[in-house]
Design goal:
Layout lengths: L1 H35 L7 E2 L11 E2 L3 H11 L3 H12 L22
Antiparallel strand pairs: 1-2
């Protein structure tokens, strides 16, 4: 009798896990289709070849990235990525690290 109860408990647990996993798949698919239809407007640009999301690169910086990339033989997406990682597109205010480094290049005074 005890083995039967343990087996039923394990079976129930497996069923609950499969149901939960199935619901997570359904929710993920729903969210993916919903976000695909969201219009982020013309404020951002996606280069098409890079790995940036539709709403990741502010258009105001795009000409700067492209000009610098052409001049120095780089990909503009690389410059945008560094700008994003280091300063979140210049949105950190004040732009001073916890150890006192300042500016985009995080130079210590």
């Amino acid at each position: 009798m005890r083995k039967l109860l343990i087996s039923l408990g394990l079976l129930g647990t497996v069923i609950v896990i499969f149901i939960f996993a199935g619901l997570m798949v359904i929710v993920t698919i729903f969210i993916a289709f919903y976000l695909d239809d969201v219009d982020f407007g013309d404020e951002y640009y996606w280069g098409g070849d890079g790995n940036f999301a539709d709403n990741e690169v502010p258009l105001q910086y795009l000409p700067l990235y492209q000009d610098a990339a052409d001049e120095y033989g780089l990909e503009w997406e690389l410059l945008a990525a560094v700008h994003r990682v280091e300063t979140i597109f210049s949105s950190i205010n004040p732009m001073i690290s916890s150890v006192g480094a300042e500016g985009h290049a995080q130079v210590r005074p």
